[in-house]
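User: Predict structure, ligand NDP.
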Amino acid sequence: MIDEKLEGVFAEVVARNPGEVEFHQAAREVFESLGPVLAKYPELADQKVIQRICEPERQIIFRVPWQDDHGEIHINRGFRVEFNSALGPYKGGLRFHPSVYLGIVKFLGFEQIFKNALTGMPIGGGKGGADFDPKGRSDSEIMRFCQSFMTELYRHIGEHTDVPAGDIGVGTREIGYLFGQYKRITNRYESGVLTGKATTWGGALVRTEATGYGTAYFTREMLHARGDSLEGKKVLVSGSGNVAVYAIEKVHQLGGTVVACSDSSGVVHDAKGIDVELLKQVKEVERGRVSDYAARRGDATYREDGNIWEIPCDVALPCATQNELTGRDARTLVRNGCVAVAEGANMPTTPEGARVFLEAQIAFGPGKAANAGGVATSALEMQQNASRDSWTFEHTEHRLADIMTGIHDTCHHTAEQFGAPGNYVVGANIAGFLRVARPMVALGLI
Ligand code: NDP
Ligand code: 2IT
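Assistant: Predicted complex:
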């Protein structure tokens, strides 16, 4: 429920941003947590901090023309929403997926403000992308698209201005093509302008693994707070992209067994535990599908259009996309004895699903806390680029683990302090909000 003092503010956000349903959903969730904060700090209401946070500092929409391998011309739409720079340069990924439109970019950029604040690193919030579908495109088509995209984007970004990275459909390969074009246009080797670079030319060790590893660490911390652990737990991980693969790897290292993963075509159930090396070979090297994995993995079964959440488990990690876990799925998970859910993806649980988990009092880690390890390690990459240094895998992973424990503890304590013990949604929203609200007031009305 939104506090009655905030109802009008929320109604205005909806009216000012018509049709952007995912942005409304993300904003509503934060508004629902903020009632007690304004009661405690009325000066934040006087300063209209919430209204200011909901209005991006800048929104850029641009044409991305490109030619496919047959010479046919395509026109896509590119976006960069620079949401908030109170804590540092805008920071957040780029998503290439046909579903991308302003409402998706704004929900992601809005979440990113609070997520980045929770990391404790000096980074503001932003997000971008394009409604481009990379599926089935050749390497040279991807390169031409990235070059065209950067030919407009370059004028808006910079290591002290705005630092994009990857998200759905954008990984190390795309970051390489984007950086190459940025360097060519600007004639500057400005490593810190993008993160998620390959480790052969300025990328940080652990950035590739960071989001998935971080989600597994966050899960470990939530279980630990309840006197439990990942040891022996049966785990579901949806998706099979960057976040999913490394969540699976770290869950296995921490003693759990991931018995299923998925893509947008179907679900693979592998009761003996997903073979991560085979999954990496299929997904990262061959750019194949989970059906290809199942075909090569003896006992594993593949179900086209299957619902991963129907497989009985102890822990569920949604790591694919927004609203992939519904109220019905949440009830199924709770009924099957699931004790913890951590969001590797951004906003993968519908509001009804989240309500089910909170009412059942299982451990529920929202994305802006549970998947913050990716952007936190991006900030570590920026640090290394700025100092022209490179740290070892062990050193960087240690820092990631500490950051995830810190985020967990901050959310846990903040929830208790504001009368909602155990509710990480409230804890993350309030802690993230306060970390960005105070600097906004300190910087004056800008
Ligand atoms: P990838 O592109 O590497 O993988 C995405 C995975 O999700 C694929 O398995 C894909 O299946 C599946 N997926 C995507 N869209 C849909 C859809 N509409 N329906 C069903 N499945 C879908 O992306 P990432 O792993 O990087 O991102 C996954 C999630 O994690 C996103 O929500 C992203 O915002 C979030 N995230 C990513 C971070 C990062 O560092 N990369 C950091 C923090 C959060 P298919 O191949 O069939 O499309
Ligand atoms: O949603 C996210 O946090 C990301 N896609 C990563 C952003 C980043 O800048 O590393």
